[in-house]
Write a structure and sequence with these properties.
The structure is a homodimer of 282-residue chains. With 282 residues, the first copy, chain A, is an alpha/beta fold. Chain A contains 10 helices and 10 strands. Helices cover 36% and strands 23% of the residues of chain A. In chain A, helix 2 links the parallel strand 1 and strand 2. Strand 4 of chain A pairs antiparallel with strand 4 of chain B.
Chain lengths: 282, 282
């Protein structure tokens, strides 16, 4: 892969990387679409990264659908697939980890200790191997995208990290490889995440700026769905992921909840135009 | 610096980096000499890296001798000097650290917690900024060199890390920017480090392979110098820095000791030829 990437650079190709764990869905395909618009060569990687799973998490049963993934990548006209094995990414005596302090310990990081260390380490390795000018990440995992952007900036990487919009099912559920775990009742219940964000969006559009009021309203919607075991519903600064009390800058409204054994994430991006006008993106 | 380095790469220049904290001495100049032999462009960096100093260490009083350093770099025909400021290397909200687990916690790492995390982070940043094909480090700091080599391998960097021999004063003291701290009595006493390694070398040449015997002999020599406050005298595997009981592979004989308030390091590299013949390098 390194040798190939070097040759591409010598030919002055603009090189884009879409790192995935496979089990591809329309969310991944939207990253590829965006990559194809900006880059002359697009590499997708598929690697279910063991270091980002906790000991009691779903590494072993994470969905692996390689042949269907390859079909989807061919249809999406990805130029190259990088498909490394764990023993090549983490050979014997492997010892080096990249961590983004602070950002990696909040919210998802508190619930999944070590998760983001695994993510930033593997992304750093993929970026060094492929050396793309652009790399693409989905906004559904907003904290991950913020951590990777922070890492790229802090470590003076050349590559630009691009965060792409959330793709949703027709009923609003955010696309995720883990949605296949949901049984029919939980699948139905999981739409409460999107409804909750819609409720928050309406309140914001009607002028609510107090984070606590918004949070209370969100919890009221979430409680209507007894199958949802809510981990958090938070409003945070979009760069630092520190909680906001007053919503007056770029922010994320974040939800994490379990349905059965399946943890799902969703979020809304809130921003303000130059004129101070609120904008929001589900 | 990034822009300049990009242009050099486009011209297919072979690019070498010699990262330093300034206070240059013959040891640094030997790194530059080696770099000039392998590379068509040599960049030296001078940056007294705050993140590798502990709160009670000598960051504030670390010798800063910029105008004399620049003269030396000009005489050594370094092509470029990279002289960043702390606020540019660690801007506001800086949060990302690279750590080599295990290796960074032993020996120097145990005595100076966080030290190697600071070193590997700043070297990673310099490597990303300058993007050299080769980077040069002195073997006097053997553990640092091993950690950086491990990091470069683990994170799939293109650059090759080169470890260069120790330069010594005529009386055997290993060159170090911290030698200037020594008062005349401590300067005289500090030669015990080299004498201790010479004694170990003689024993090895005479067939000693038991690490404990070698260690005891080293401590006997060190005790002859009451001004030396010894931190450790160890024989370790040259890659993992784990203690060896039997010396039968590539190894370091390491010493760390304080003279007054000044901590000094020295070491000997032990290896075996293909025929099993011992070689050693002071």
């Amino acid at each position: 892969m390194k040798e190939f990437a070097r040759k591409q650079r010598e030919e002055n190709r603009i090189f884009g990387l879409v790192p995935t764990m496979g089990a591809l869905h329309a969310g991944h395909l939207s990253l590829i679409k965006q990559a194809r618009q900006q880059c002359s060569s697009v590499v997708a990687s598929i690697f279910v990264n063991p270091t980002q799973f906790g000991p009691s998490e779903d590494f072993a049963k994470y969905p692996r659908t390689l042949s269907s993934d390859i079909e989807k990548l061919e249809s999406a006209v990805v130029h190259y697939l990088f498909l490394p094995e764990a023993k090549d990414i983490y050979p014997q005596n492997y010892s080096t980890y990249v961590n983004v302090d602070g950002l990696s310990e909040r919210l998802e990081g508190r619930i999944r200790p070590g998760h983001f260390r695994g993510v930033s380490t593997v992304v750093m390795k993929l970026l060094q191997i492929v050396q793309p000018q652009f790399a693409y990440f989905g906004r559904k995992d907003a904290q991950q995208a913020a951590i990777i952007s922070r890492m790229a900036k802090d470590l003076n990487l050349d590559a630009e990290m691009v965060t792409c919009p959330i793709e949703r099912e027709p009923d609003g559920l955010a696309m995720s490889s883990r949605n296949v775990y949901l049984n029919p009742s939980d699948r139905q219940s999981a739409t409460v995440l999107h409804r909750t964000l819609q409720a928050a969006q309406l309140l914001l559009q009607n002028g609510t700026r107090d984070a606590l009021s918004l949070q209370s309203a969100m919890h009221r919607v979430l409680k209507e769905e007894p199958r949802a075991k809510v981990d958090y519903a938070e409003i945070v600064d979009a760069q630092t992921f520190e909680p906001l009390t007053h919503i007056n800058r770029k922010a994320y409204v974040l939800i994490a909840a379990k349905f059965g054994e399946t943890r799902l994430l969703d979020n809304m991006l809130v921003d303000f135009s130059a004129g101070g006008q609120l904008t929001s993106e589900l």
